[in-house]
Amino acid sequence: MIRLENVTKRYSTDVVALDGVSFDVPKGEFVFLVGPSGSGKSTLLRLINRQERPEEGSVFVAGRDIVDMSSNQIPQLRRNIGNVFQDYKLLLNKTVFENVAFALEVIGKPQHVISQQVPAVIDLVGLSGKEDRFPHQLSGGEQQRVSIARAFVNRPLILVADEPTGNLDPGTGEGIMRLLDRINGTGTTVVMATHDRRIVDAMRRRVVQLDRGVIVRDQERGVYQ
Amino acid sequence: MISRLRYMFRETGESIRRNPTLSVASVITAAVSLLIFGLTLIIQHGFDNLLSQWEGGVEMIVYVNSGAGEEQRLVIEDALGQQQGVTIEAWSYCDVACSLADADRLFAGDPVTRAQLTELNIPTQYKVVPLDATQVEILRGLRDRYLELPNVYSVQLAEEQLDLISKLQGFVSTYTTGLWIALMIAASLLIWNTIRTAMFARRREIEVMKLVGATDWFIRLPFMLEGLLQGVAGGAVASVAMWFINGRWTAGVETFPANSGMTALVVVDGYEWRVGLIVVLFGALIGTIGSGTAASKFLDV
């Protein structure tokens, strides 16, 4: 589903975020990206949804090399990739329902699809009954659930999550992980960058460890270390 | 399609509501610049009316008494014919209908005088194009000669009014054109800045939209529509102001003396409606250009 071949990404001549990185994520896999701050985890996620372009190498998503993809094809790519962020990136002037519906609305889905899919995904993330609340009326965990609902409402092939539990207490973080695990269970490939040792150790999924832009470990059913 | 349109109009409305002060400032600036643009066109048309009888290189007009018949006019035509190819390049006869049409333009701002001119009393005209318009002395000599011909009511040379009006027209059009171009750029830049501010205020939304796969055009269109509406609103305000000013000027000219030379410097032939439409379309254009460039440039907020 995702393949990186000798990918190098530099932000300047002396700042190398990724250096000759290669790895493969099959369809339906759950992968943790771990490593210290500045190791290149977020850059790698940004390469997958084409927010960044590498200086060298190729990035394949669903069989297509996206490095030289034209700018008018990028929206189509991103409709197949859900994004979850540490700071949720919710729209504060919109309700839970509107935040989730927004993801469908801006890609031109008709109203009947929106009114069918949005309640279903809100129910999936456990926020039924809170559709009319605004983000400031929700806890951090609930806000992250809205963010996940928004990322998943279009049933993407891939879900990339950048430190989704970073702002949450351990208990709430576990709830979010159960949700991501459940989404992964539907066949969606999940790539998640995290610093959360406890979660990685508890989940026992594939772990790709980065250090200064280089993969130093790629382990099936791994732990944080 | 309907949901996209609904989204676009809703987002445009919200964006305008979020920053009404800047939107109003953009509309006012656009209105002022478009008003000056519209007035420039109106003034130009007024001058064109004033100079219409001198179109096509005409430098001399021989007015013929209204009662003169075809035979009596032959004397004048013989005199003109003798000079054809010598000092005169061409001449043409402007009959009663043609002279009445001229009067419509010349006395557009003086309906009382115009009403006194009828098919029975209006002097017809011979319009004369000289071989060399710079030979003023030759033209003056011709005028003196033609004035002595029977049934000639009067002879008028272009130099007596054309030069002054042409200079005035050039002066006015140069400065008003410069002014409207400068203000139009200012209006476009202000709309550009309004859209930039609106996009900055909604940068989080734009970021989310891009991440979930909205196309650049989908993101851009509400902003472009906002700029378009500001331009159209400015154009509409300018059109109303222009019609008001034109109406007041026309009413004022009616009180001028008939020999003031200003009676043709009005626009009452419906041209002002066309200019109003042009002003609105121009407003839409500057609004779209301003907002379109901003929406493209600042999409990566």
Sequence-ordered SSE layout with sheet pairings:
The complex is a heterodimer of chains A (225) and B (301).
Chain A: E1 2-12, E2 15-25, E3 30-34, H1 41-48, E4 56-61, E5 64-65, H2 74-78, E6 81-85, H3 96-105, H4 111-124, H5 140-152, E7 158-162, H6 170-185, E8 189-193, H7 197-203, E9 206-211, E10 214-219
Parallel strand pairs in A: 3-8, 3-9, 6-7, 7-8
Antiparallel strand pairs in A: 1-2, 1-4, 4-5, 9-10
Helix pairs in contact in A: 3-4, 3-5, 4-5, 5-6
Chain B: H1 2-18, H2 20-51, E1 60-64, H3 70-83, E2 88-94, H4 96-106, H5 111-116, E3 124-130, H6 136-147, E4 152-157, H7 162-201, H8 203-212, H9 216-253, H10 271-297
Antiparallel strand pairs in B: 1-3, 1-4, 2-3
Name a few traits of the molecule.
heterodimer; A: six-stranded mixed sheet; four-stranded antiparallel sheet; 7 helices; 28% strand; B: 301 residues; alpha+beta; 10 helices
**Regions with little confidence, pLDDT below 50 for 5+ residues of chain A:** none
Q: How many beta-strand elements of chain B? A: 4
Number of helices of chain A: 7
Label the structural class of chain B: alpha+beta
Q: Spans of chain B with pLDDT under 50 lasting ≥5 residues?
A: none
Strand coverage percent of chain B: 5-15%
